[in-house]
Amino acid sequence: MKKTLFLLLLAGLVNTSYAQESGTPPKETKAVAKENNSASNLVFNPDQNVVTDHTTTIKGQRVPYKATTGTMPVWDEDGKAIAGLFYTYYERSDVKDRASRPLVISFNGGPGSASVWMQIAYTGPSLLNIDDEGYPLQPYGIKENPYSILDVADIVFVNPVNTAYSRATSKEIPATKFFGVNADIKYLADWIGGFVTRTNRWASPKYLIGESYGTTRVSGLALQLQNNQWMYLNGVILVSPTTLGITRGVAADGALKLPYFAATAWYHKMLPPDLQNKDLTDMLPEVEDFTINELLPSLSKGGSLDEQKRKEIAAKIARYSGISQKVVMQNNLDVPYNYFWKELLRDKGFTVGRLDSRYKGIDRKDAGEGPDFNAELTSWLHSFTPAINMYIRNDLNYKTDFKYNMFGSVSPWDKSNDETGENLRQAMAQNPYLNVMVQSGYYDGACDYFNSKYNLWQMDPSGKLKDRMSWKGYRSGHMMYLRKKDLETANEDIRTFIKNSLPKAGESAKY
């Protein structure tokens, strides 16, 4: 189980018929990326790319675009290339005024996860073949994404070192250059500065989007880009955010997960009839109110809590979570996530998924304190891995014998001095143009939705920035966009966010 959780923390995926399934094939190849192979040895080239032209349909409109796929160096202080980051840069090709065209810079999480997830399942112009709820289908493949944001913004998907095809240039380069909260932010800010310069996008309104650990990354980048690259953003989008280094404390840690438990129990029809008969978003406010106003103060009292009050609180937790009052009492009013995933459907012979609790798993035995495996991640890897490997080679025409790392080794990761929530607050305070939007799935147990709301409250204790912060919830999990309805809604929310965060002509950045 520890190994599985470690892999999840490294999270923020065709056959001969693929060309027919994948939409319009490349019309023109302007450059070809080749490996410099000597016998059977692969030699990594940190600076190469291939350019292909495509057309897609977004919201009923034909959109021509250019895709640049390849590697661009990370340079050290002496101008030496110490790594090459693999990226895909999508530009709408019929745009005349590139200066006013927004640029979205996209990261996934992990911290050792590739950008595959949002690239071919969320905002990019191509979409992997899955059913309307996100489950795998065969034959594997890629099709057009009719909900992509490429109609309103160009997008670059960036892969940190050891993810996808990104690599250090030498084994002699210290891992500490890349693998840590602040090291990660520093070298990625340098890379972004170089990319924006190389692609002549300094005039463009700029946005960062990150998923899961990617939210830690982009929150820190917002300030790092301002302070060290002198690059000011219009927006940061946090998809399924982490705690962003914001301290919880024992009581808050125990209390804040209950609304997620309630959402999951509602989905699996494990709540009492009066709650089950309500719609999800009509039921959750009652649970949220109890969590903040009763459960949190009760957990703060610990062993001094009156026994009768303890039983009353346990009864309410049981009512909202679908877990028996006896189990709640046995866990001192604080049922661990892992136990919840095992316990909720134990009598039905199933576990529920961590990253998306709509998914069910089957364990070797019903007894135990946690699931044998994470049902949702196995399902996602099933559909994403073939699709991304085929898409890059067949559609984007990038040929390489290097392995595409869905999850790459980034251990040991230095977690110290994570102040990324405060970094984002500082960036917003210093830049009146900067807006933040959070997107969360109600069924995400890794970065649960109520903790993401708590982030916003604690990040801005004065309330002076709240008019530039927004929160959106979706009826799916960590990757809310895997559900077709949420894919459409979430992309539309990004379009609206971009539109609303672009200043009017002549509108100054001042308070």
Features:
511 residues, alpha/beta, Rossmann fold, 2 domains, ten-stranded mixed β-sheet, two-stranded antiparallel ribbon, 14 strands, disordered N terminus
Give the topology, please.
Elements: H1 2-9, H2 18-21, E1 48-58, E2 61-75, E3 81-92, E4 103-107, H3 116-119, E5 126-128, E6 142-144, E7 154-158, E8 167-168, H4 181-198, E9 206-211, H5 213-229, E10 235-239, H6 250-255, H7 258-267, H8 273-276, H9 280-301, H10 307-321, H11 325-330, H12 337-343, E11 351-352, E12 360-361, H13 375-395, H14 420-430, E13 435-441, H15 449-459, E14 469-474, H16 484-501
Parallel strand pairs: 4-7, 4-9, 9-10, 10-13, 13-14
Antiparallel strand pairs: 1-2, 2-3, 3-7, 3-8, 5-6, 11-12
Structure characterization notes:
This protein is an alpha/beta fold and 511 residues long. It folds into two domains: 2-246 and 380-501, Rossmann fold; 250-374, no CATH class. 36% of the residues lie in helices and 16% in strands. The protein contains 16 helices and 14 strands. The chain has helices spanning 2-9, 18-21, 116-119, 181-198, 213-229, 250-255, 258-267, 273-276, 280-301, 307-321, 325-330, 337-343, 375-395, 420-430, 449-459, 484-501, and strands at 48-58, 61-75, 81-92, 103-107, 126-128, 142-144, 154-158, 167-168, 206-211, 235-239, 351-352, 360-361, 435-441, 469-474. Strands 1, 2, 3, 4, 7, 8, 9, 10, 13 and 14 form a ten-stranded mixed β-sheet that branches. Strand 13, helix 15 and strand 14 (469-474) form a beta-alpha-beta unit. Helix 5 (213-229) packs across helix 14, helix 7 runs antiparallel to helix 9 (280-301) and helix 9 runs antiparallel to helix 10 (307-321). It starts with a helix and ends in a 10-residue tail after the last helix.
